[in-house]
Every structure is written in structure tokens, then in C-alpha cells.
Amino acid sequence: MRLAGSAAPGWTGAMVLFGTLPWLFATSMSGRRYEVELPWRRELTQRYRGRRRAGWVLVASGPVMALVGASAGVGWAGFLMWLSVLGVAAVVVTEWRLSVGVRLSPEGVLVVTRVHPDFARACRR
Question: What is the 3-state secondary structure (H, E, C) of 66-97?
């Protein structure tokens, strides 16, 4: 799998306190572009896409079901909006658990995060 993006040092996150524009400026000026190719199992990609898709289906179905319930006169139709909250939580957890990140260390080295422990050990060797 090929990952491409930009990684900035951790200190740029503090620039948010000064506003969005200073943060964007600091991130773009100190960031480092990367393109990394990583080994990836097909099963993991399928699991990731399936869970993410299920989360987004929940996000979309919450308002639809609430509107249908409200038009049918169901008193607790607004409660169905919690499906959207559950869907957002599912997407966030899926992104955190099954996605790979890249960050810039203080020494200026790109570090791949949230990888399998066996892969990390093989890279260190």
C-alpha cells in the first residue's frame, strides 16, 4: 500500500492556540512531504473498508430514520439520531485502530505509527 502526505513536527499543534491561519502556515512551512510503500494484507484492507462503510451507513441512516419516524408520528423518533453518533464513533475507532499514521520526530525523521509489532521489529533489525 502506498501512503502519501505531509508530516509536521509536534510543536506545530500548539500554533492552533494562535488561530487557524498561523497553524496552517507553520504546518506547511515546517512539514515534510512523504511517499511510503508498506506491505499490507488484503484481509486487513477489506476489514477496514467494511467497518468504515458500516459506520458511514449508520451516520447517514440516523437522520433518515428520524425523519421517517417523525413523519409516521413516532414520539421517540429523535432518539434515532443516536445512530449517527454511534456511526461517527465507529468511524473514529476504525480509523484509530486500523489505519497507519506517519509523524515527524524531533530529529526530523519520519516515523510510521500504529503498525503491527512484527513489522516494527523487522524494520528495527
Answer: HHHHHHCCCCCHHHHHHHHHHHHHHHHHHHHH
Residue 60 near residue 80 (C-beta atoms within 8 A)? no
Cell of 21: 491561519
Q: Quote the distance between the C-alpha of residue 73 and its chain's center.
A: 37
Q: Which pairing describes strands 32-37 and 101-104: parallel, antiparallel, or unpaired?
A: unpaired
* Alpha-carbon dihedral 119, 121, 123, 125, rounded to 10 degrees: -150
pTM: 0.61
Q: What are the tens digits of pLDDT across the range 33-78?
A: 989 888 888 888 888 889 899 999 989 988 888 888 888 887 787 7
> For residue 12, what is the DSSP state?
G
Residue 2: what pLDDT?
Answer: 85
**CA 121/CA 125 separation, integer angstroms:** 6
What residues contact residue 20 under an 8 Å CB cut-off, 6+ apart? Answer: none
Residue located via cell numbers 525523521: 109
